[in-house]
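Sample pair:
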Amino acid sequence: MDRMTAAIAIFIITILTFIGAVIYIFSFVALLKIVFGMAFLGTLLVFGMFSAITAYAKSYRFLLIFVGAMLLSGYGLYSVYVWNPAGIATVIGTFVLAFLIFVWYISEPDLSIAERFSTPESLMKNGNFRAAGRKFEKKGDYTRAAEAYIKAEMLESAAWAYEKAEKYREAAEVYEMLAEKHGDAYYWKEAYEFYKKAGDLRKAAECLEKYAMDEPWFWEDVAEIYEQIGDERKMMKALECALEYYKKEAEEEGVFWEDVAKLYRKLGKDELSEGAWVNFARYCEAEAENDPAWYRHVAEAYEELGLHERAAEAKKKYEEYRAKVISKSD
């Protein structure tokens, strides 16, 4: 038996011994008085603390609720003291009923009492599309929920409901509406994702293209999709956009010359690709002076340039560096 199991066993035995002793020395009623008394005292203290907090925050609606609960706990504690079982049962019943009402309320917190007892169809008929959408959503009828949300101009909720209904094209269309309405590139990315799930790669590419105007490192992904659907003209255009982005980045951080070189090659501009590989090799050689791990990339650059002897020399330096690292770790 481990320590935790032993501690639990000792605790249970202690509690049972205490219960048995109270019943034997006093009575079963005395045990009930102790249990209910401690319970009501605990709720009295808790609700008293919350009453003080809400009073300080000037949240008078919640203060009223907590003060009522505190008074009810006090009455329960008094009923235990004078041993009034009917009073105890009344307090417990009131707390249970309040808890059930609370659970019912938080199940649909943004609906009024009248809306809770109305059918979604009647709410739609009365033009209360927001509440109808919530009711349809709770029923699991996500398609009709989405339709209600669109009428209520709750487009993000509509997109979510279409996603739950696995109607990805409709979800994508709603995200397009959101992108045009708010001018936020994030929604173009979402539209792309859902058009892709729906199998409409052309629409997916068009949405990702609009997203790439704000996030240009996605131009290569745009080009890849256009390549998949056989639109070479748009693929080349996307590659040109990606090239412009990486050329600017390479001027600030030389590691991007590798991306520039690969894009030039995809565009059929071999001479320019070779020049970019030279720039990348120079950048890597400069980095390798401080971190020999870069000799691996030096070797790769020279291989691309067809300078096999210089590639082999760089690779040798990288292998020597790697061997030293392994020997130190051993």
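The chain has a mean pLDDT of 92.
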